[in-house]
Each structure stands twice: as structure tokens, then as C-alpha cells.
Amino acid sequence: MKIRLSFCVAVILTLGAYAQSASPTARTDDVAIRDACAALAQNARDAKALSVIQSVAVNDTMPADMRSRAMVFLALPFLQQMNTNQFARMAQVITSTFPEEGPVALGVSESDWLATCPSCNGAGGKTMTCTVCRADGTCGRCNGTKKINVACLECKGTGKVVVISPNVARRAESVLTELRTLAMENIQFAEQSKKALAVRTAPERIAALDEVMAAFPKRQDLTPLIKAREVAQKEIADKAVRDQAQEERNRMLKEKDAILAVVESLPFSSIPVLLRQIDAFLEQYPKSEYRIEIEVLRSKQQSRYTFYTNLWRALYVLGGLIVVMFVVQMVKDLIFNRKKKEGMLKLPGRENAGDDNLADPLSDSRKAAAAREAEDELGIYP
């Protein structure tokens, strides 16, 4: 907190030389930064532009590279005014706050504002004869050495004098250019990101996001684009699932319609094939909203098949019984006739009863007896 307060005080002191006091905004857009950099390149004392740069320096939400360069730009005027102590304090704040960006963003070193003192050639002073004891006696000032060291009045014994290098002014210009370049990059990144995120179809949006991330690979704020890409990938995956579900539903409807259409003119012999198709349909689509309808249809067709099957079985059995009875009767008749023929008594002279030319013995005996009776009556026999 003390470092932040010291820095804010330093910034206000810097701006006091150029403009009226202005409170920093909570958020500075990149367009304002770009325009402020362009204005300061024309007029380093532009109060409005300086207030924009100040707001960047004190805004914690700004990117580190932009904020560090804004702080450097505000610190360099202290150095140009030869206030090296204040510049050193601000440089320390910058390097400690931004350990990665600070040293690079600062862009100047002691050699850019300190030079060897021309009066003492960097020695910081010169040796003179003691003016108290001169060459006689001893004194506490020189401890008997007769010589004393006198600090250089120009460098105050440091051996260095402040000489601002032209590099400081060039660094002020370059850091302003860097800040403007970063702002323009942010503008381009924001525009391209917005355009990519606005793409309606997920595959094209992914391609657009990949293009933006490839164009700005080192940015630290790519997370929203990465998440947006993940969302687009999920949209594609979800769409694929929906399309697959719709395709499966269309196939289910087609198979259902085919089953219902076949029932209209289905012959009895084809019912088993239909039942197998229905079983396959119910197995493949167990959660179909037409399951009950198809199950009822199957039950009806099964009942129909069972009825006709039993009817035909009864007819087959009846026909079989008739055939058996007919065969049995024929066998019985054949057996009976054979037994009748074999069991008939053989009378004399009837062995060849079927022969019309053969005489009947019984008839001949009767004729002989009648003849004898007639002879008796005539008195022929004695």
C-alpha cells in the first residue's frame, strides 16, 4: 500500500507540471489509449492525453505490459528534469511490481543519466596539503599526513554528474509507440474476436477462433476464446447426437410404417416373418412411443396366426382320420372277402362251380332217381 501511495503521489507530481488535477477513470478503452499516444507524440504536455496514460498506470485491470509502459512514460519526465531520486524510486516500483515487464519496459540504465565528473575525472575529489598544519607539526585534521581529501564540488564526491543522454528522450518516444502499438493490437484483437464469436455455425466459428488465436498466440487473454471454442465443439457434438437421434427416429418411423403397411394385405403364411420383424423392431427401439401400438399389433397377429394354425391342424387331423378310416375299412373289407372265400364249403362236383360246362352231381342223382321211379311205374325193373 505504501508503494502504491508513493507511486500515485509521484504520478500526480508529474502531471502537476503539465495539467490540472484529474481523477483516473476506472476503465480506459484501447481507442482512448491509442488516441492519447498519438496526441502526446505531437504534444508531450497534452493534459487530456496525460490523464488517459495516468489512468492506465493506476488501473489494476489493465494488462501488465500496457500498465508498466504507462508507468515508465510517466517516470521518464523526472529523469529529464534531472530529478534522479524521484525517478529511481519510481523505477524501483516499476521493477518490483512487474518483475518480468519492468526491466524491459524501463529501457534505460544509469549510463543514460550519469556521466564521469569532468572536474575530478570520476575520483570524487582531490588531495590537497593540509591548510591547518601545513608542513609543520601535526593536527587532528590530517592525522599527521599533511594531506587531506577534498570532495569535488561539482559531483559532491560521487565521481558522477547528471548528464541526460539523448536515449532518455528516444526511450520516451519509443515507449509511447509501444503503448500505442499494444492499444492497436488490443483493438484488432477485440474486433477479430467479436467477429469470430459472432459466427453462427459452430464449425465456422471454430475456424474463425483458431485464426484469431493463431494471429495473437502470445496474448494472456485468450481464455474467453478457448472457452468459446470448447462451447462450439460441444455444439457440434450435441448436434451430431441430435442428428443421430433424428436419423434413428426416421429409420424407426420408416420401419414402423412398413410394418403397418404390410398388415393390410398380409397372407397367413407371412405372419411368422412379420412377427420376427416386430420382435426385431421392439428389441431395437425399446423406448419407442409406438411400442404399445406395435405390441398390440403383434398380439393380434399372433392370435390370428394361432387361430389359423389350430384350424389347419384340425383340418389336417380330420382329413387324416378320414383317410385312416377309409384305409381301415378297405383293409377290413379285403380281409373279410378273403376269409369268406377261403371258408366256403366245397360240395361234390362244385369244385369248378364256375365252369358252365360241368354237370351238377346232385342234379344228375335226382334225374337218375326220377328215372328209376318212372321205370318202376312202367314195370321195367323186376
Structure characteristics:
rod-shaped; two-stranded antiparallel sheet; 65% helix; single chain; disordered N terminus; 382 residues; 4 domains
Topology, pairings included?
Blueprint (H helix, E strand, L loop, with lengths): L1 H15 L13 H13 L4 H12 L5 H17 L3 H14 L4 H5 L7 E3 L8 E5 L17 E5 L8 E3 L3 H32 L4 H14 L7 H42 L6 H14 L6 H53 L17 H18 L4
Antiparallel strand pairs: 1-4, 2-3
Helix pairs in contact: 1-4, 1-5, 2-3, 2-7, 3-4, 4-5, 4-7, 7-8, 8-9, 9-10, 10-11
Structural notes for this entry:
The chain is rod-shaped. The longest helix has 53 residues, at 291-343. The protein is mainly alpha-helical and 382 residues long. The chain folds into 4 domains: 2-108 and 168-183, no CATH class; 114-163, no CATH class; 202-264; 268-328. The strands form 2 sheets. It has a two-stranded antiparallel ribbon. The protein has a two-stranded antiparallel ribbon with strand order 2-3. It is built from 12 helices and 4 strands; from the N terminus they run ααααααββββαααααα. 65% of the residues lie in helices and 4% in strands.
Q: Low-confidence segments, ≥5 residues, pLDDT <50? A: 1-27
Q: Please state the average pLDDT score.
A: 81
Q: Please tally the helical runs, counting DSSP H or I stretches of 4 or more residues.
A: 12
Q: Any idea what the shape is?
A: rod-shaped
Secondary structure class reads: mainly alpha
The counted number of beta strands is 4
Helix content: 55-70%
Pattern of helices and strands: HHHHHHEEEEHHHHHH
Distance between the termini: 190 Å
Beta-strand portion reads: under 5%
Radius of gyration: 64 Å
